[in-house]
Automatic annotation (TrEMBL):
Keywords: Cytoplasm, Methyltransferase, rRNA processing, S-adenosyl-L-methionine, Transferase. This is Ribosomal RNA small subunit methyltransferase G. One of its GO terms (biological process) is methylation. Its EC number is 2.1.1.-. It comes from Laedolimicola ammoniilytica. The gene is rsmG. It is found in: Cytoplasm. S-adenosyl-L-methionine binds at residues 78, 83, 129-130, 148.
Length: 239
């Protein structure tokens, strides 16, 4: 199989035309992911076509609710193997991207990928969201925060909204029917300075995977006491 041609074809189905260089970067990312996955747990999805659909294509579907602008700063909280941050950076090279993960060996892998692919203006950080969100150089500095991390919406909002500047947005990638979760998180989002806006629900192209992208706009600055100390947002979600 011509992997690059396949990648370009799949992206063109969602109206994204990749250059030969971008297709090559995705192919190289795939190869590095699979090689590293043999020695550490990065992804349960390893078949090439599935990785393209459920990791690469899925990552850039945010364009349905927010198209990345020129020179915007984005942060991917709990990035894991680099999703959605690295695919977004490949497709939108003008973005400044911060990748944040709490596991150092994953962060080392991400740095290897960034170096190998020649990606510029990408920062891979090892640490917890609760700590970095308290630092002046990261707090309320981002146009958009994205996260595919598995956490309930109230907890995830407390980890992510403090990074977003007023007027920016937090977009969590959720799966499963999330109406109840949205209703339960409404108060938390408000406390943190956000407002739940539109949501986009769809089946991920070429797969059986349901996806919901939620657009949460940052209306006002987040109170200094949030996020609370390590573990609290998960143990006792705001409500």
């Amino acid at each position: 199989m011509d992997k690059r041609a396949y990648i370009r074809d799949e992206f063109s189905k969602i109206q994204i035309e990749l250059s030969e260089k971008q297709a090559e970067q995705f192919e190289q990312y795939y190869e590095m992911l699979i090689a590293k996955n043999e020695v550490m747990n990065l992804t349960a999805i390893t078949e090439f076509e599935e990785v393209v659909q459920k990791h690469f294509i899925d990552s850039v579907m945010i364009k349905e609710v927010r198209e990345p602008g020129d020179n915007e700063k984005w942060i991917d909280v709990g990035t894991g193997a680099g999703f959605p941050g690295i695919p977004l950076k490949i497709v939108y090279p003008q973005l400044q991207v911060t990748l944040l993960d709490s596991l150092n060996k994953r962060v080392k892998f991400l740095q290897e990928v960034v170096d190998a692919l020649g990606l510029e203006q990408v920062e891979a950080l090892h640490g917890r969201a609760e700590e970095y969100a308290k630092k002046a150089e990261y707090r309320e500095q981002y146009d958009c925060c994205v996260s595919r991390a598995v956490a309930n919406l109230a907890s995830l909002s407390e980890y992510c909204l403090p990074f977003v500047k007023v007027g920016g947005a937090f977009v969590p990638y959720k799966s499963g029917k999330i109406q109840e979760e949205i209703e339960a998180a409404g108060k938390a989002v408000e406390i943190l300075g956000g407002r739940i806006g539109q949501r986009k629900e769809f089946m991920l192209p070429g797969s059986d995977m349901y996806r919901c992208l939620l657009y949460i706009e940052k209306m006002k600055a987040t109170a200094k006491k949030y996020p609370r100390k390590a573990g609290m947002p998960t143990k006792e979600p705001l409500h």
